């Protein structure tokens, strides 16, 4: 059995669960399509309620995601495949999706870029974010819009770039200076917001 056959077999195993456990399909559909909005809300809440270290975490996560998307574009040139519902018969497709290159999974890249960074900054609560990212990746297979290889590649890209960014970006003095500058402007616009101690200069 070659890699492609293993990829298809794993996809069938996961996607067919939606045929056996139909009551879970609405949950998986919701996670696959709408959990991204909860991630966005969570990031905004952390930005406006967190301390300076928390903001650097979000900046690092954003840089991770942008870098990961660039790497993903290159990966997509090297290898490409359409969504499973476009290539295989009898796919349990739960959400509408245009046919394009599904390798690697952008949803998975997004979640693992942010959630891996959250884990690196705070391992105790970060494990829950990693579980969420994994669930999103699983839901994309369950919904019939990605192969396991699409998800695994997206997760790997997000994780490895998050590790590199975590080791580099917080050490750049320029990043802290830019953050301090932003917070001074923010204090002028939102004078009621509590002042935070400048660190990392």
TrEMBL record:
Q: Give the keywords, sorted.
A: Membrane, Transmembrane, Transmembrane helix
Q: Where is the Phosphatidic acid phosphatase type 2/haloperoxidase domain?
A: 58-166
Q: Which InterPro entries does UniProt cross-reference here?
A: PAP2/HPO, PAP2/HPO_sf, UPP_Pase
Q: Where are the transmembrane segments?
A: 27-48, 126-145, 151-169
- Superkingdom, natural source: Bacteria
Q: Which CDD domains match?
A: PAP2_BcrC_like
Q: Which Pfam families match?
A: PAP2 (PF01569)
Which PANTHER family does the UniProt entry name for this protein? AT30094P (PTHR14969:SF13), SPHINGOSINE-1-PHOSPHATE PHOSPHOHYDROLASE (PTHR14969)
Name the UniProt record assigns to this protein: Undecaprenyl-diphosphatase
Traced from the root, the source organism's taxonomic lineage reads: Bacteria, Bacillati, Bacillota, Bacilli, Bacillales
